[in-house]
Amino acid sequence: MNTLRRRLIVSSVLAALAASSRGAPSAPTVEVWTGPSCGCCHDWVRHLEANGFQVNVHDGGNTDARERLNMPLRLGSCHTARVGGYAIEGHVPAREIRRLLKERPAAIGLSVPAMPRGSPGMDGPASGRERDPYDVLLVGRDGSHRIYQSYR
Q1: Predicted model pTM
Q2: I want to staple 145 with a disulfide (CB 3.0 to 4.6 A). Which of 19, 95, 116, 137 is the partner?
């Protein structure tokens, strides 16, 4: 291959890479605080990573994080997270987090209270592959909540 042709090919490839990296949004980073000795928290983290999120995990401190992010205690679960200015409580599916970040409602964030079987992180062999119906709640700034998405 002659030198001029090689330079043209390399230039074209570099231009295409630069253009695609400018148009590609960076993966949102999720900051996660886990509950004491909780295995399902790390399963939920793997769910987020498999869905394109970057995750920073802090083992412990979820109660303090929940309070700091103004997530009502009654909507609590085993881990608390923060992404894009929102609080995420419990086993919220990545799909709903992406929707939240796209829609940007005036809210504290999302919650899946308790630990429903079949939700992300609670869907492994330990759950016996059982599935409980559950709701993802949108938590308003005043602490009220409404159903954001139901899983049946």
Answers
A1: 0.81
A2: 137
- CATH code: domain of residue 116: 3.40.30.10
What is the span of the domain harbouring residue 54? 29-151
- Count Cα atoms within 13 angstroms, Cβ side, for 139: 23
Q: How far apart are CA 6 and CA 18, in angstroms?
A: 18
Residue 44 · residue 55 · CB < 8 Å:
no
Q: Using CA atoms, how far apart are residues 91 and 131, in angstroms rounded to an integer?
A: 13
In a domain, 9, yes or no: no
> What is the number of structural domains in the chain?
1
Query: Count of CB atoms within 10 A of residue 22's CB?
Result: 7
- Give the closest residue to 81 by CA, choosing from 52, 110, 114: 110
The confidence score (pLDDT) of residue 15 equals 42
Cα 65–chain centre separation: 16
